């Protein structure tokens, strides 16, 4: 008598792509099914393994991996895998591991092929699933995205516990047990005046080191040292630290790269807490598949180039998952930064260690953490003051060229304005840079500032990054009350204006003319960033990200009520439209750009864009009025 | 399978069998082949049994489940048989069998409620004797996998005695007994009772749940056979190795 597998038929009936099949077909499939149990943690399919079945998860959960070990997808009851191998060359392309105890129904190849050929809906589903699953992975969505976009801030749950350098090991241990912490920051309070640049800021304590449970054990107890040993003898110096606004996964990568378990977190150069590896582990779940980790694993330029598609995939995925422009901007900036860092590492390996210390700078959108997928490379180098052009410059030119060519190969086009470290003008000792900024700020002309505004968004990415901090302090200190300078900056910030809006499928220009398309960067995000920069410098903001700057500006209360929030919304909306259209370009297989044709905008976008442009236009009028030469702000 | 009340599960004797350890079914089958007169049964024994030291992953198995008219093998009879071929790696539904049989005792109302097989169905069904040859062919050379061997072993033995005047012996791996080894090692003590610790249920559905196997509706012989087959895979994956000798599992 024909055996009827009720449970199997019932199950298939409840899940796509089987739900569309006839009862008769389901009955036939059920009699061909094979069943296998996999305990949690067991490998179900190995890379390259020959396979003869479609794997359907009856119960449990399965993780699908890429060949390189990155998680690709996570499936649960009703999910299926192994279809790639069946449709292609029978060899497993995506290894599978049981995440939970699993019961798998295996549908033999012959049955699968027959269904695929005879049933259009089934074939469509299996194939469509392929494509969407390529783009979307559950794990990325649920877990990875959190890490990619969460700031370290979220991990800092209590203030850093600190102790002076004059304390003893015993005092440190006592303090740690009182506070119930596993680490302690050791601060050095200077009485002597700091560097002249810092003269007008109060003398802040300097982070001298960090002491952990492990230090007390290994460096004190195990060595039999006295409890009165100064903490400075057993602390860890040369600390690796992170900024509060960096992303959680950057902190994780820093720990991995430098093999440390504690990282001080700084905000405006001041420690606000310490995060431990355990904090991150608690925060992160089991999956980490980050483009950034691939960047740091890449051994050659070719391998780096190979990651461009991953970067683009990461971008479109974030867009699809409705990440906001701030998240996407910072994720892309981190990726760009990592490319630079890895290229510099590779460059130093190739050319040998640098003859004098240097700092590699990111400028413009990357320094502001507002990088998107279409981006120029804007960079520069600060060299040690002992730099001797005749002896050293050949090295730095080669290094700059290596990085610049590498970045170009990885999709960061050469800067049209030649603002790159390959340009001798932007490869100078620290004292020259200080002179550059002093000249720009103290003797400003609209013309001299026209091409240098990009330098007012700068960030150290490699080497002596403290020099970048020093330039940033110099900028903050010198520009704040400098009305002539601010007026010049403001004038330049008005050069690029937004369009009025849209009329039919044309862009309405303030002149009354119509144009076919609009450059969302030139006419939208760039003038907004320029405008926000002027206000930020005026209020002495130390932030570089436009959204962060806006917060500082709103706090300083220099704008009419509500206008700061309006600007934030306008920036977010224009950025989002720009980002979405780049993602659409990428998905359509086109080269993404910043130009948008009104016909491609939805009514919703048109309406909101018009409002956003109006806000920008009004804000520009206010800027012009507020920053007039000679006016005391 | 028929319902098994908790009190029906007797496991004391199975403990001694584990210790005996090395049941030699291959030799036992040689003896039985020489003693038996019935040709189909003789052929079954002559097909032999795997050696006791065969690693479990090389053992061909048949998961088996009966629905019966009651629980007393001496009075009740088999109403349906479900068989599913399996190895440790794969359970093959292609090689599954399902028979509804006409029992030689009355189909009682209370059992109909359980397995849902009706009088009109059994009226049209064949007697076990008519499918015996096919059944024995499927079983030949295989180790049976059951949940509570008291049913399948005793009922088939009794049913054959009634029909051909000879009983049958066959090796089984009892998934219930494997669970009992884990959860019935000792009787609940005073402390357990004090804290109200319940005996862990080793019934099929509860045992399956412990291994995160899905819930199947019980009392369809074929589904229950499949359920036991999956349970055995899970038990071996969790508590044995694929190289464990079959003698560690069978009885």
TrEMBL record, chain A:
Domain Cyclic nucleotide-binding as annotated: residue spans: 17-116
Q: Does the keyword Magnesium apply?
A: no
Q: Check the record and name the InterPro entries matching this protein.
A: CBS_dom, CBS_dom_sf, cNMP-bd_dom, cNMP-bd_dom_sf, Diverse_CBS-Domain, DUF294_put_nucleoTrafse_sb-bd, GlnD_Uridyltrans_N, RmlC-like_jellyroll
Q: Where is the CBS domain?
A: 156-229, 235-291
Q: Name one matching Pfam family.
A: DUF294
Q: Which domain of life is it from?
A: Bacteria
GO function terms (MF aspect): [protein-PII] uridylyltransferase activity
Asked if the record carries the keyword Magnesium, the reply is: no
Q: Any idea which UniProt keywords this protein has?
A: CBS domain
* Name of the protein: CBS domain-containing protein
Q: What is the lineage of its organism?
A: Bacteria, Pseudomonadati, Pseudomonadota, Gammaproteobacteria, Oceanospirillales
UniProtKB/TrEMBL annotation, chain B:
Cite a GO CC annotation: cytosol
* Annotated SUPFAM superfamilies: Ribonuclease H-like (SSF53098)
Task: Give start and end of each Exonuclease domain.
Answer: 60-241
**Gene Ontology terms, MF aspect:** 3'-5' exonuclease activity; nucleic acid binding
The record's annotation in CDD domains points to:
DEDDh (cd06127)
KW Electron transport (keyword) present: no
Keyword vocabulary terms for this entry: Exonuclease, Hydrolase, Nuclease
Asked if Nuclease is a keyword of the record, the answer is yes
A Gene Ontology biological process in which this protein takes part is: DNA metabolic process
PANTHER family the UniProt entry points to: DNA POLYMERASE III SUBUNIT EPSILON, PROTEIN NEN2
Name of the protein:
DNA polymerase-3 subunit epsilon
């Amino acid at each position: 008598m024909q055996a009827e597998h009720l449970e199997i038929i019932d199950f298939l009936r409840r899940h796509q792509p089987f739900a569309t099949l006839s009862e008769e077909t389901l009955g036939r499939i059920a009699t061909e099914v094979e069943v296998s149990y996999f305990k949690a943690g067991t490998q179900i399919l190995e890379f390259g393994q020959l396979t003869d079945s479609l794997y359907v998860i009856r119960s449990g959960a399965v993780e699908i991996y890429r060949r390189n070990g990155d998680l690709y997808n996570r499936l649960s009851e009703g999910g299926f895998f192994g279809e790639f191998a069946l449709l292609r060359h029978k060899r497993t392309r995506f290894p599978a591991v049981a995440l939970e105890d699993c019961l798998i129904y295996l549908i033999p190849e012959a049955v699968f092929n027959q269904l695929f050929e005879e049933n259009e809906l089934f074939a469509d589903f299996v194939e469509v699933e392929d494509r969407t699953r390529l783009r979307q992975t559950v794990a990325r969505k649920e877990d990875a995205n959190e890490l990619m976009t969460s700031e370290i801030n979220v991990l800092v749950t209590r203030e850093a516990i600190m102790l002076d350098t004059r304390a003893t090991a015993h005092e440190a241990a006592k303090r740690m047990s009182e506070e119930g912490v596993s680490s302690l920051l050791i601060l050095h309070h200077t009485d002597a005046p700091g560097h002249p640049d810092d003269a007008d800021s109060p003398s802040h304590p300097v982070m001298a080191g960090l002491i952990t449970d492990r230090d007390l054990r290994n460096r004190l107890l195990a060595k039999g040292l006295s409890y009165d040993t100064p903490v400075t003898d057993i602390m860890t110096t040369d600390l690796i630290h992170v900024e509060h606004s960096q992303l959680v996964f950057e902190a994780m990568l820093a720990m991995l790269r430098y093999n440390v378990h504690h990282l001080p977190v700084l905000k405006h150069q001041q420690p606000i807490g310490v995060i431990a590896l355990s904090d991150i582990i608690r925060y992160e779940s089991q999956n980490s598949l980050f483009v950034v980790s691939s960047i740091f694993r890449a051994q050659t330029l070719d391998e780096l180039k190979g990651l461009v598609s991953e970067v683009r995939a990461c971008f479109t995925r974030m867009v699809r998952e409705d990440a906001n422009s701030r998240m996407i901007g910072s994720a892309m900036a981190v990726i760009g930064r990592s490319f630079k860092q890895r290229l510099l590492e590779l460059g130093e390996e190739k050319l040998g260690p640098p003859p004098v210390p240097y700092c590699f700078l990111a400028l413009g959108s990357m320094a502001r953490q507002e990088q998107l997928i279409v981006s120029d490379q804007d960079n520069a180098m600060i060299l040690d003051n002992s730099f001797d052009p005749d002896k050293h410059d050949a090295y730095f030119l080669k290094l700059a060229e290596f990085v610049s060519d590498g970045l170009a190969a990885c999709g960061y086009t050469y800067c049209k304005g030649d603002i790159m470290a390959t340009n001798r003008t932007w490869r100078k000792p620290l004292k020259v840079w200080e002179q550059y900024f002093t000249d720009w700020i103290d003797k400003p002309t609209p013309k001299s500032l026209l091409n240098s505004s990009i330098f007012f968004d700068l960030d150290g990415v490699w080497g002596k990054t403290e020099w970048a901090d020093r330039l940033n302090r110099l900028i903050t200190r010198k520009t704040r009350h400098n009305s002539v300078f601010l007026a010049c900056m403001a004038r330049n910030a008005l050069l690029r204006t937004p369009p009025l809006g849209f009329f039919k499928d044309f862009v309405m220009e303030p002149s009354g003319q119509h144009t076919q398309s609009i450059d969302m960067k030139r006419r939208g995000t760039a003038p907004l960033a320029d405008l926000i920069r002027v206000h930020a410098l005026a209020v002495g903001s130390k932030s570089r990200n436009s959204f962060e700057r806006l917060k500082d500006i709103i706090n300083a209360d220099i704008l009419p009520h509500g206008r700061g929030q309006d600007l934030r919304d306008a920036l977010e909306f224009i950025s989002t439209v720009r980002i979405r259209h780049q993602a659409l370009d990428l998905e359509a297989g086109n080269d993404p750009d910043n130009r948008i044709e009104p016909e491609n905008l939805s009514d919703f976008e048109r309406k909101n864009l018009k409002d956003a442009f109006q806000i920008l236009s009004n804000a520009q009028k206010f800027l012009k009025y507020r920053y007039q030469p000679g006016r005391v702000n | 399978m028929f319902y098994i009340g908790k009190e029906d599960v007797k496991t004391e004797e199975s403990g001694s069998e584990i210790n005996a350890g090395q049941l030699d079914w291959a030799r036992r089958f040689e003896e039985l082949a020489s003693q038996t007169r019935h040709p189909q049964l003789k052929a079954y024994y002559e097909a032999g049994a795997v050696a006791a030291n065969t690693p479990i992953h090389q053992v061909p198995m048949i998961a088996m489940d009966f629905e019966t008219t009651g629980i007393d093998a001496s009075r009740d009879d088999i109403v349906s048989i479900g068989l599913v071929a399996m190895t440790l790696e794969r359970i093959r539904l292609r090689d599954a069998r399902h028979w509804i049989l006409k029992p030689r005792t009355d189909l009682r109302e209370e059992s109909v409620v359980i397995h849902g097989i009706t009088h009109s169905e059994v009226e049209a069904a064949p007697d076990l004797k008519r499918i015996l040859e096919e059944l024995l062919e499927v079983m030949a050379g295989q180790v049976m996998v059951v949940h509570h061997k008291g049913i399948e072993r005793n009922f088939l033995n009794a049913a054959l005695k009634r029909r051909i005047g000879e009983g049958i012996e066959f090796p089984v791996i009892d998934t219930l007994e494997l669970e009992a080894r884990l959860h019935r090692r000792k009787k609940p003590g005073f402390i357990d009772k004090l804290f109200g610790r319940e005996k862990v249920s080793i019934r099929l559905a509860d045992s399956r749940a412990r291994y995160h196997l899905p819930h199947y509706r019980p009392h369809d012989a074929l589904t229950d056979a499949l359920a036991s087959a999956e349970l055995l895979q899970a038990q071996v994956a969790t508590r044995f190795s694929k190289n464990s000798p079959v003698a560690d599992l069978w009885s």
